[in-house]
Amino acid sequence: MDTVGGEVNASALTVCVQLQRTRVGSVPFLLDVSLQFPPGINILFGPSGAGKSTLLDCIAGLVRPDAGRIAAGEEALFDSQAGVNRPPQTRGVAYVFQTLALFPHLSAEENVAYGLDGLPHEQRSARVEEILKAFRVDKLRARKPAEISGGERQRIALARSLVTQPSVLLLDEPLTGLDAELKAAIVDDLRAWNASWRIPILYVTHTREEVDALGERVIAMDHGRVISTGTPLEVLEAPRHKRLAQAAGFENLLGGTVVDLREADGVMRVRLNESRCEIEVPLGYAAVGDRVHVAIRAGDILLATSQPHDLSARNVIEGKITTMEPRGTLVRARVDCGVEFVVHLTPGAVRSLDLAEGDRVWLVLKTHSCHLVEE
Amino acid sequence: MDALLLSLRLAFCVSAILLAGGLPLAYWLAYSNWRGKFLLEAVVALPLVLPPTVLGFYVLVAMGPRGPLGKLWQTFFGHGLAFTFEGLVLASVLYSLPFAVQPLIASFESVDRKLLDASAVLGASRLRTFWRVILPLSIPGVVTALVLSFAHTMGEFGVVLMVGGNLRGVTRTVSIDIYEHVQSLEYAEANRMSLVLLAISFAVLSVVYAINRQVGRQIGRRLWTPWAAK
């Protein structure tokens, strides 16, 4: 079993599930995950269809795994061998859905109080009061969800889940559609709350920006499996997986064949598909003749208008600009070098180099900007 | 006037019984995963397509002194079921069943499943989820069900004639009364009763649409009316 972050904690969430799903007309899907989530924010990252939400559904008890064991600390929530399968009502797992699922006919306060049914009235209103303040929505208590802005709805959904004092919090892309600043403010409040409660938080996302913003531990998933774990830098900067590379924002994902290994230099040469273009990439687990994929960020590529000399960078490729389109604060250029590269430039660079479509240019790639990825 | 009061009494009883029985039945039909569910759905919808005389005939046979229902009733209450007010209620409940159950099913089904998941994760039992989430969000469907079963029972003719006959003050409802008047060429009398029935039906449907619009705006949901495109 992998432990993200290292330490084994008494209140960690242990998950070990297998689930086979067959749907008519689609490829059978197999979820097979074995992990321990320590207290704090754990980011589940991966393309849509990777099985992230299904994993959360299993933990919450909304979906029954075929086999495995799920435990919050020492307490088993599901154990196929021992015949344990606690219903969602008694798992102590809080779940904020992507759609938030606030009850439209109840006020913000009634929504938050919903999970505290068993408590005496005074205790209940004290808890509701406290959590509404912690998430800065105490002024909205009387309003219905439809009368509240997106960011505030997300805060109320968080408050509604956390007021029950869960032992695990599941968040399924709850902050989708919010701007970065608002997101950061909500995450700060969540962190502040968790500083005293110290429960494992599983935060599902498929966008790279959120991973960068949340930091901490990342668990990358695809096709129902965990494909890597570590810090955002470790997981995202050098993704070993093609679909993950696409999700992590590598604009250039090029197929090629290994033509030469230079173990002494720690590099190998890859000929890119359907071209004479050869680039040098860091040595990976591959043999001469193997087919590989190379991922390169559009922002990591330098562009020169005359052939550069005396560079430390090992890859200089000649090509021609085919298109240039402004995209917000940058310009996206497509350069045909036999294969097509996408290069991000600043509008200032385009002006000072006087770049235009059809210009002859040289692309400069550092060896370590080229990442080898698996299929 | 006897006939109108009798019809109102009948309609109230039938609506109340259909609401009480329709809620659990519709809940089950909306959420059950049972494979044979379509059979029960078909049975519930049967009165929509069956001629009232066919339904009335079988109910009459069942209620007769040798029918299973008639015998049962006889043992418990000491008198037969056919041609009584109770028998009329029973037959009308069966006949109006789809008008109560279908709006309920439609509105239960249109409640977002994620709300039910959220309720479960927050610790609420199925029953509590029903009372606190499903039912409040289905108010328009409940109103529609009540009003439709009421109006449908008010206007019922064929089944009543088969099962109840035409006993003044016991089973002679408004529609049968009108028929009687026409048969006796008392057109003025028939017209008076018909107008009353027309006014009641119109008022009832206006109320349904008004409530649906009002409540729909409040809870922001698509609403069920029998004639709106699904």
Please, could you describe this protein's structure?
The complex is a heterodimer of chains A (375) and B (230). Chain A has 375 residues and is an alpha+beta fold. Helices cover 23% and strands 35% of the residues of chain A. Chain A has helices at residues 52-60, 108-113, 121-134, 150-162, 180-197, 208-214, 232-237, 242-247, 347-353, and strands spanning 2-3, 13-21, 29-37, 40-45, 67-72, 75-79, 84-85, 93-96, 168-172, 200-205, 217-222, 225-230, 252-262, 267-272, 278-282, 291-296, 302-304, 315-327, 330-336, 340-345, 360-365, 371-373. Chain B has one domain (2-219): Orthogonal Bundle (MetI-like fold), CATH 1.10.3720. Chain B is 77% helix and 0% strand. In chain B, helix 1 runs antiparallel to helix 8 (139-154), helix 1 (2-31) packs across helix 10 (174-183) and helix 6 (113-121) packs antiparallel against helix 7 (126-137). The N and C termini of chain B lie far apart (39 Å). Mean pLDDT of chain B is 86; it is low at 226-230. The chains are: A alpha+beta (375), B mainly alpha (230). The interface between A and B is medium-sized, with 26 and 21 residues.
Task: Give a quick rundown of the structure.
Chain A has 375 residues and is of the alpha+beta class. Chain A has 9 helices and 22 strands. The C terminus of chain B is likely disordered.
